[in-house]
Amino acid sequence: MYELDFESAVLEIDRQIEALEEKPDRDRFETEIAQLRQTRDELLRKIYGNLTPWQTVRVSRHPLRPHADDYVRMMCRDFCELHGDRHFGDDPAILSGFGRIGSRKVLIIGHRKGRTTEEKIRCHFGCAHPEGYRKALLKMKLAEKYRLPVVTLIDTPGAYPGLGSEQRGQAEAIARNLLEMSRLRTPVVCVVIGEGGSGGALGIGVGDRVAMLTHAWYSVISPEGCAAILWKEANEQTNTLAAESLNLVAADNLKHGLVDAIIEEPLGGAHRDPEGSSERLQTWILDQLSDLSRVQPETLVRRRFEKFREIGPVVSMEMPEVEAANRG
Questions:
Q1: For the chain, which terminal residue's Cβ has fewer other Cβ atoms within 10 angstroms, N or C?
Q2: What pLDDT, in 10s, does the model give residues 274-299?
Q3: What fold is seen in the domain 57-309?
Q4: Phi then psi dihedrals of residue 4, to 5 deg
Q5: pLDDT tens, 55-112?
Q6: CB-CB contact of 53 with 248 (8 Å)
Q7: What mean pLDDT value characterizes the chain?
Q8: Could you give the 3-state DSSP secondary structure of residue 226?
Q9: 188: enclosing H helix or E strand
Q10: Could you state, in order of their start, the residue ranges of all structural domains in the chain?
């Protein structure tokens, strides 16, 4: 079992519960099992109610945490995956396809990270190439044509930084998605389900409603990347400092208006109850689509554009102040 150091006491109780449940005379230990579960749940509330930003990042990367394809499997019926960008190839790091969430037909796009070593390598650990973003945009245009809403599930440490990606126009592909998503004439709902790293997340993150799961993060750079730039090395201490400085947790993003809602995860995080997390995610998505489906396309586009234009403060300075700052 994968262990986070701050969860060690919880996992020890889990092992005690498991040992009692495997006994042939399990019924004799029902009271003890119930007490252990209560103790574990109280401990989980205490731990997960006081996570540091760096601990939140580590939870978001838990190997048992549900990925986009897991949520598709749990939430969707009749899912049909679509491939290729009609320019270069098919990027497995981007999952796209049509399906039903509840009674609603939707286009779902998400980052695919992979589970096994082979899958992770094939999917670049969730870091998409430009053909992945172009594939996503091509499918969004198809959804717009058929007047179907778009749902994106964001979970990436960032766009793939390799030479080939740059040669094929990584920056242009992401920028094009930002432009085109801002004017899609169909509802767009985005959720950061794990990692929300920089432009790689934004490439499928422009929506009418944007949310984060409780233990997800969303930032201009990963803590390790920030630490490497500012302190020339990434270790536990610098990663912790960077995570605290970046304001990357869900509460910070909500406070600054970067997201509209926080979807509460089950006790102990989505990795402890994937199906419970999926049910909460599905409920939130369907609520937003029910609301947005009543809005005219022109109004959707206008509100979406205004929403993103209003994010962040604008600081202006008079010329004398600028000159003084330059001299100082």
A1: C
A2: 999 999 999 999 999 999 999 999 99
A3: 2-enoyl-CoA Hydratase; Chain A, domain 1 (3.90.226)
A4: -90, 135
A5: 999 999 999 999 999 999 999 999 999 998 888 889 999 999 999 999 999 999 999 9
A6: yes
A7: 92
A8: helix
A9: strand 188-197
A10: 5-50, 57-309
